[in-house]
Design a protein that fits this description.
mainly alpha; two-stranded antiparallel ribbon; globular
Length: about 450
Amino acid sequence: MQPAKLKAGYGMTLSACLWFGLFPLLQGGTYARITHDKWIIMLALSGVTLLCFLFDLATGRLSHFLPGGKRSFRSFIPLVPAAALLLWTVLSCLVSSFGPDTWFRSEAVRYEGLISQLCYFFLFFCFFFSHIRLKPVLLSAAAGVLVFFIIVLLQRAGGNPLGLYPSGRSYAQNPEFQGTIGNIDMGTGYLLLLAGLFLYALLQYFPKFSSSSSRSGSIHLLPVAIAFLITLWLIITMDVQFGVISLAVLALVTFLRFLPGKYRLLVFILLIIIVLLAVWFWPGHSGGLWELHEVLHGRTQLSFGSNRLAVWYYSLLLSGESLLTGGGSGTFRTRFNEFLLKNDLKIPTEQDGKALPDYFDTPHNEYISQLTDHGLPALILFVLLLLLSVFRKRDGLLPLLTPCSAAVLCYAVQAFFAFSVCIVAPMFWILIALSFGE
């Protein structure tokens, strides 16, 4: 007797389509309060997700993915670090020296308080126990990025579609804000998720990346291929350095997949040597490559990475004050700036005559943020969850990526340079949940 075929849930498939097709485009009509508006939209759409989940549960579309269903015991392993991370996040807030007025909503620090954290975990668990059809989600995401692309083009041409730029502002004055995501760092994070998702959805039609039994129907390939090219173009032209770095890591993992197993390690080592040699002899005088060149030559400056190096270093020092539980969600800004003042530490205001930001409300590194806000156990659990997703399938040390785990890999790389925010984070938590059911 053959096992029962998994039934995709109509409700949760619709929810995923809304998150990847509609959520990136929704906003309140101005960049001035885009984080607040996205936060409200996230909460509302999470409510819709709950209704979709209950619909699938009522119609029996979750039977294979709930305890006692057809899913193997091993497939529930990711629930352990996820549940532990949830509990530790709540604990870090409850034992924080700050009150709920700081860590619960965290309005002053991009709404990354406990409410948002609970929302992310809620989405993770809902989609972890769901089975969706990926093709409608891919088409919805493709349609969404096409609309995003058109809006960006109109802005770069001097227009102000949707009135997103406040009065007196424009792309020419503020190129760091584009599209319906807002800041290009966040926009690049959104696009990187789609780059991994689209690329490996297309690669599933190559025998090396998927069994023939899983490749059915190809009507969606053209729009997904077009969307993938648009996504690449947007990442490159937004000119955010970690976007190119993340794409390079994705390209390397994909390239190694095409090689025979016995050559992969050798080729990987050779590529690393070539890159290090190129950086060592780099003749430039600015930019990320030049900064890495200076680091290799022992001429490190705290101002490197637009002061990221300074804020990372000082944040690591700060984490030592409460290594186990951190300070609680959304408490970094106050703790960090008090720490600088107390220890007479300074963040550089310029590098080679170029003004740099010297006030930070996040560490601009999601891993360090977990460490400072929720403590070392939270950081370990978060990294473990990422590794379980990316290396869920592997050939030796090489991860055998799927569409959702490829998106997770891209997010994991950019997380070294960016931070969690409700504009992008909900989509990441959905994708990491879905990656365990692919």
